Amino acid sequence: MTEVTKKSSKTLDDSMKITVTRNGPYIVTGGVPLTSEEICNDDEGYCRTWRQVKKYPVQEQYALCRCGNSKNKPFCDGTHAKNYFDGTEAGDHEPYRDSAGVIRGPALTLTDNEHLCVHARFCMRAGGIWNLVKQSDNPTAHDFAIEEACNCPSGRLVVHDNATGKVIEPEFEKSIVIVEYPPRGEHGPLWVRGGISVISVDGEPYEIRNRVTLCRCGRSENKPFCDGSHVIR
Ligand code: FES
After folding, report:
1. Which atom from ligand 1 is nearest to the alpha carbon of 68?
2. Would you kindly state where each structural domain of the chain is located, as residue ranges?
3. Residues whose CB is less than 8 angstroms from the CB of residue 142 and which lie 6 or more positions away in sequence, other chains included
4. Which ranges constitute the DSSP H helices of 49-187?
5. What's this model's pTM, rounded to 2 decimal places?
6. Which of 25, 52, 77, 146 has the most CB atoms less than 10 A away?
7. Which pLDDT score, from 0 to 100, does residue 13 have?
8. What are the pocket residues of ligand 1 if the criterion is a CB atom closer than 6 Å to any ligand atom?
9. Residue with the nearest Cα to atom 4 of ligand 1?
C-alpha cells in the first residue's frame, strides 16, 4: 500500500521547508502560502468542513510562533526568549506506518496512528470512521469514511482502497493553514499540507507527509507536533 492515489496532480517545490529552531519559532522558507481556516460543524454539531477565513500575503521567509505567547500571532515577536520557552522536541522520527494500527474493512482499510491525534473530530460523524470502514461495502459508509479520513489534519487517519492497494489522500498544494475551531473557542495547530519538509533543531528531517500538524500553543508533549493539548476541555 505504498502507491498514492491523488485526486489531481500536485505542485512539486522542494525549496519549501520548515525549520524548528531551538526554543524558538518555526522558520518557514521557500514562499510557503499561509492561510487561516475554521472547522465548521454540520447541522447536528459534528465537525464536517473547512472554511478559509484569511489569506496572508506571500512572503519568501517568515517565522511562525511556536511558544503560543506572541502578540503578533501567527508570527513570532520574540516573546519566547523573554518567557524562557522550552521547545524541546519529542516527536517521533519513525515512519507513520510503523506505529499505526490497522483496521480492515470489506472495501477500505484504515491505518490509525493515535499518537498523532489533534482532536479535530472529523472522524466522529455517522457512527465514527472505525465503524464506517468496517461497513465500507456500503457506498455511503465508504464515501463517509474517505471524507472523514481526508479531513483529518494530522494524517492520523489514512484510508487505503483494498481493490487497488493504493492510499487515498486529498490533493493539497504545499501550504500552511492556521487551524481555528470557533464553536469551542479552540486555536488549533499549524496544518502543514502537501508534503513540506520539517527539519528538527538537530538538522534531522521528519518523515515528509501530505498532512502534518505542528504545535503553535507551546503545550504539546510531542513537539514539534501537536498532541491536542490546545483543546479546551
Ligand atoms: S497546538 Fe499545541 S498542542 Fe495543539
Report:
1. 2
2. 9-40+51-90+176-214, 98-169
3. 107, 108, 132, 136
4. 79-82, 129-134, 139-151
5. 0.93
6. 25
7. 65
8. 118, 188-189, 215-217, 219-220, 226-230
9. 226
